Give the backbone structure.
Amino acid sequence: MRTKILITGGSGKIASHFIKSFSDQYQFRIFDLQPSKIQDISLEYFQGNLTDKEYLVEACRDMDIVIHLGGIANPDASFNDLLDANIIGTKNIVDACMEAGCKRIIYASSAQTIESYPKDIQINTEMPVKPGNLYGVSKCFGEALLSYYCYNTELSAICLRIGAYEFPEDFTEMNARDMSAYLHPDDLNQLLHLCIESNNIKFKILNAISNNTYKRLDIQETKLHTDFDPKYNSFDLFKLKK
């Protein structure tokens, strides 16, 4: 029987790319404010807001795993904008998972949780958080919330600090920071798949970037715990771009 996965933010580009690549392997249900843009795959769809906890419980019911991609992903967002989507919404989806009996959450955290470190320092997940903006603060909240639940309940969680996720053809300008934190969509697909299939993780925060020559985030722990083997290197992909 195929693993049943609910993806919040399921109409976004990360979810859409993952669903298209793994629709033959997993059974997907999506939750989003916006309609799905995927036309050629049959999907269960819940259109709603992360502030609607009762509807989230309904969406989580009978699911094995939740991939929580929903929320605001804007480094310039204000606290008031982030409060409902990234803080209350994250608490709601965790509570919904618990009530519905889901066994694992894969949480889309962000490299913005550590963006106040100097650019020439490589960050591992044992270092204290130093968010660069309130969006990063909201992601630190999600990591801490899941740590609390995982060490006090049966829930397990993997928090992925996602770097500069983008399809190569969509980049018009690359700076050194972008290249050091670059995450190719196919590398994230691989990592999401490994996180779903891993059975021996209770709670982990893992860095998620590609195999770039210079790495803003250290991915040794990610490789150790998931066998992650990223295929792409931004310094090869974008070496001709100025």
